Predict the 3D structure of the following.
Amino acid sequence: MKYFSNLPIISYANNLARNIFSRVKISNTPQYYPYTMNEGQKIEHIAYDYYQDSDDVWILHHINNVIDPYFDYSLSQIDFDRYIEKKYGSVYKAQRDIAFYHTNYYNDDSTLDVSEYDSLTPSSRKKYWAPVLDLYGNPYEYVRSKEDIVIATNKIISANITLTTNTSFIVGEKITQSTSGGTAFVAFSNSSMLTIQHITGTINANNITGNDSGAVATVQDVTTISTPISEDEFVYFTPISYYDYELDLNTKKKNINVLDKAYTDIVSSQFRQLING
């Protein structure tokens, strides 16, 4: 079925046009199956291969609640990297810059026995572990809890600085301190003050350098503004880059639902009835 030919005609800017914003809700949607798209696979190809008609791609759009047929499905690696470059400036920058921190249970298969769990200090670390129970309901070991905890940043620091170059720091850029080995990202900057976040290692009263701007400054003093993730609990988190965040979203979009081909005529008929009132 050709989707657009069934849309109602309206007057728009003194012209007759199909109302592409028309939507209907098909009740009692029949059987559908989960399907994982292959790398670079086009949704039109799936419609043609399964329904023998690429025009029936609208069915896949409908049952998957797709608004944007380009970005609501998984992009190929080439298109994904182009999207990243346009949104973040470069793949390198997206891979470097931290979006947030996430609990890292997914790559931690360690266990604790009961005595090790009981001796965890501080006790706040216990929330990152879940008990494994025996047949009598008693814990005999602990594994990492599968709870997804997302925190915007691990620490925010304010520093008084003296610029030693004519170039200022850029908000969002990564800074490094060679003496301490510490790194961070700029949240605010002017000629005498710097606010940084996503701290790795230690930032102290020494020279810092901006990776993008090339700015160099001497830090006079450092004040911790906030520590959303304490040093004791930092081991349970991993920084997630913007690239990995976007890649995870793109990968999830590979999982779609496909309507059983036996119901295409029924769904098409119901669509025509509903869209034309």
About this structure: The mean pLDDT is 91. DSSP finds seven helices and 16 strands in the chain.
